[in-house]
Amino acid sequence: xxxxxxxxxxxxxxxxxVSVTLAVGPxxxxxxxxxxxxxxKARAADPDADVTEVAxxxxxxxxxxxxxxxxxxxxxRVVVVNDVQDVPEATGEALVGFCRTxxxxxxxxxLHPGGVKGKRLLDSLRRAGxxxxxxxxxxxxxxxxxxxxxxxxxxxxRIEQAAARALVEAIxxxxxxLASAAAQLAADAxxxxxxxxxxxxxxxxxxxxxxxVVADRAVEGRTAxxxxxxRWALETGTDPVLVTAALATALxxxxxxxxxxxxxxxxxxxxxxxxxxxxxxxxxxxxxxWTPGGLVRAIRAVANADLQVKGAGNDPTLALTTAIVEVGxxxxx
Length: 333
Known about the structure:
Radius of gyration: 26 Å
Low-confidence stretches: 1-9
Number of strands: 7
Structural class: alpha/beta
Shape: elongated
């Protein structure tokens, strides 16, 4: 699902006249932001606004009425119902009734993890006018990249497209991790543009990232750089198995790209290779200089190294060094 048109996930305040916010989806960070946005709106109007969280399965209709009733201590209230799919049927009808006839200065946030359970109630709440916020997981790399760029912008910075992609490769698809990293980069950039160099400085020290750096240098024919990165990776505690895994994956991707039929759309080709579409450009660049025979030779060298580092040999460093040299020689052939 594309991120465009879904800025509410960045924590923007809900529309002015919204009394019921319906957050649907399994992504916890986005659900938390939906709650926080409603709470900020209430506390902007009343700093003492009360925020109460209740479990849907334990919420009876009388208890709901009590939560929604006026308070002697605050003028505004926010009631957050977790797992709204578990509320009893009568309570669900009361929630729909509140949607249709809201109470002044009271806001409801209803959290639903998605799925079929409670779908009838969801449909009723939608028809009754609840403001829906999508909290689905962002599984497409392009959406994750756009999420990073939006996060950096929220913190007053700008990040290059390539740098955002590098951050997604380094962190993975965990939105909480991406949000934290984006905030850190934006703070340290102090209003400047964040480039790929800054991402590498902060995040290529992660073990899985170091393996990929070694692999990229190796398949590009930059053997000396690959060996230098290998030494640094091993000295800083990277498991040799991660390096062989990265090398094997990189070479397999090149082999599959080399054998792909001509005329295939990039979107279809990327799906077949199991990579995001933007990575095809990188793979095509890395494929230059390789022959089918060279790829076979390199894959065999890495497979042998994998056996060595998994117990068949006594010196993982030597096994990896030999494999990288052989990959470079195979590419030269």
